[in-house]
Design a protein that fits this description.
It is built from five helices and seven strands; from the N terminus they run αββααβαββαββ. α2 runs antiparallel to α3. It starts with a helix and ends with a strand.
Length: about 180
Amino acid sequence: MYDELEEGLTSITMRLRSAIQADTWRVNGSGDRLHGDSAWTRQVTAELGSILLGPLGLAATIEWHAHQFQKCTGIVCELTINDAAGSELPEDYAAAVFEAYNEALSNIARHAGASRVSIALTMSSRELTMAVRDDGIGLAHGAADASLGGIAGIRARAETHNGVCHVAGTRDLGTTVTVSLPLP
């Protein structure tokens, strides 16, 4: 069963990597890189993550996805997962955290100009916390308080489970997105 899963994931990963390379980094006539937003690529990534959450769990899915993100973007990913974070979570919690994580990495790939991302997934007896920190260009003044777009979506996912989302960033010093959910 695991051999078949690995084979299927390898095929999907290769197709996804090709799509990301074709759609995310385009070159215009002057040779400048443009950050494209491929709805298809984002949808496939989210759906694949959702599929993997069931058999692999949140920690292993994030580990797999971070590895693929690094291969596709060239952005180095450092991943820290405590042992408890590998525990099983209710499916809706795991999905909310993965979707927030995926949106954070999508924002990094499209906007941050980062060369390194640190991802931490920790769980205590009372709370699950996911933090994504990049070394990119940081946020423009007021961007962390945005009520539209990716940051708003991350906040909404956290609030659905009585959690919180904190976004902090400084121009030229990177951005950190932290999502904390109380455990049921």
